Each structure stands twice: as C-alpha cells, then as structure tokens.
C-alpha cells in the first residue's frame, strides 16, 4: 500500500449520489485535502455558461463535468475570476484586512471545489482531451480501484505539485534540490532554512527536528556536522517526504525520521522546531503547515521541550512574526509562553522576507508580507 493510501485509510469513506438520464448514480468521493463530499450534485457539460456555473456553486450545488476536459478548465478559470476580491477603498485595520483575506480564501475554495470530474480505475479521467494525470493523482490519492469523483481544482493542484516534485526546489543551504511529496510544505521560503544554516552551532551529539515536513532542516543540521539527527512529524506524507529527502542526499546514516507527535524518545543537545506560524483555524489539510489553531503546536513544543533537552542544551524556535503584524499574537504573548515553559532567550537571529509573496503588490496583505521578519530564537533552560 502506498503512502497516500495509508493516509486515506484513516478517513471514513464518503460517497456522492446524483441522477443521470433519470437513473441514480453513485461514486466514491476523494479529497487529498480533507474536503467533505458535496451533498447536492448535478451533471453538467460544455453547454453550461460560467454565470450558470457560478449560480449553482453559490447555492452549494456541485457540478459533475461530463464534457470536454479543457472546457472544464475554462469554466474553472471563469469561476476564479468571479471569486477574486474586489478593490476595497475603505480604511481598514491590518486585523480587518486579514479577516477579509481569510473570508475570501474560504469562499473561493468552496466555490472552486464544486466543479468535479470523474477519476476512474487506474487514475484516469475519462473525458475528452483529458491529460495523463496518473502519476500526479497516485501521489495524492493512491491507486484508484473504483469509480471516484474529485474536485477539478484539487486535481490541477496535484498536477502542479507533481511538477514541483519532478523538477525539485533548489535549497541553497544544501547546494541541492528538495523533491517534496504532495501535501507537505514546500521549502520555497528560504528565510527559515538560511537561519538554521547560519545560526551558531556548538558540537551537539544529537539533534531533534520537530515537525520536520520535507526534512530540509534535519538535512541542514546533518550537513553542518551533527552526527545524529532525529526528525519527527505527525503527518505520514511528511514522514515519507523527509525519508526520501534524507535518502536522496545520502544522509540516512545520520538522520532518522519518525512518525510521532512532537518529541521522540530520549534527549538531545539541540532541539529545533519551525511550527506553523499563524494561530488560526486551518481550512484544509494543506493549511495545517501554516495555521496552528490556538497555537497548539507552538505551546505543546515549548511546554514539553525541557523534558527532552540535555543539560546545557539549546532550543531553536524558528518563527515568523506574521501573527504579530496582523494582531493575532503579540510579542509579549510569545515571550510569556517561552518564560512559562522554563526557558530564557539567549539570542534572536532575524531574516527579512525575501519570498515571492512579499513582492506581490496585488496581494491585499502586501504591506504585512513586505514587513514580515522570521526569527530564530535561541533558547535554553532558565
């Protein structure tokens, strides 16, 4: 069983039902992103207009496409245009801008997720002019063995992710490329990687990388000479991705990847964590790499880290200040959580935003992203 099938096995099976030519029809619902099966489904084809499709989606009605695949893409593009945020001339606080941004993202995802396509046995879309999506969808859903239905928007996302995976993402700190699995956070933001690559490093015997994702930080620690690194993640996809990263970079003797929530057994001289940096609800499984409801992971990591740290050991907490800039967490809140965990700050290394979204002036949160700073907090027992 492949890793996508293992992940899917943890979720209850869902089905969708519709009527076609007066006959009832049913199929298995697939979503690698945790979306629930739509309750109302109607078959549509090339004759539907973009306006009609938008009206149906706005009413919560899903559309199962039966026409030409490329025409379905055009309808999806038209829906995307209709869900773009309109220019807002009102004076708004940063917190209000963030709320409106998330509100629009949620609305947009709901609308775009309601245009569906059939995914048949062998991971084939049986529509005219449909591309070969076998490899991309196996990575996301596993091997399809029964009639299924998926969101076209999600399918296109799996294709994009597969292209990234095939091409690889260059990581300057490793002088190599990472090939992430679908569903893991892609290391396209170099700030946090570069901070770990340049932070003062003594000679730790063992390091832990908590919430490893693609394994990029564990790999950086290993290439900096840490003889043993234990990387953990709670998500099976991330564990599979990290293990492949380690193997590709020929670091398997130094780095062990474990499927576990937060800490492995034992203690380490250095414990590193780059948790999701926004304390808000994740609207999808993919959002979980960015959104940490109630700061669960951040607080859990800090509360438990001393129990796994060697005497005189060091903790590296890598965190963006985005949440502070949009009013979801203050700097004092963060420092109080650190202090309550029995830790004190040794130093804080900072990196300004250089990721592409910081340069996108069309983004309603452009000013926030442009001013964003990622910090590596060096902590020890107080």
TrEMBL record:
It holds the Pfam family MTS. The chain crosses the membrane at residues 109-127. Keywords: Membrane, Methyltransferase, Transferase, Transmembrane, Transmembrane helix. Residues 207-322 form the Methyltransferase small domain. PROSITE patterns: N6_MTASE. One of its GO terms (biological process) is methylation. CDD domains: AdoMet_MTases (cd02440). GO terms for molecular function: nucleic acid binding; protein-glutamine N-methyltransferase activity. PANTHER family: HEMK METHYLTRANSFERASE (PTHR18895), MTRF1L RELEASE FACTOR GLUTAMINE METHYLTRANSFERASE (PTHR18895:SF74). This is Class I SAM-dependent methyltransferase. It comes from Cryobacterium ruanii. The lineage of its organism: Bacteria, Bacillati, Actinomycetota, Actinomycetes, Micrococcales.
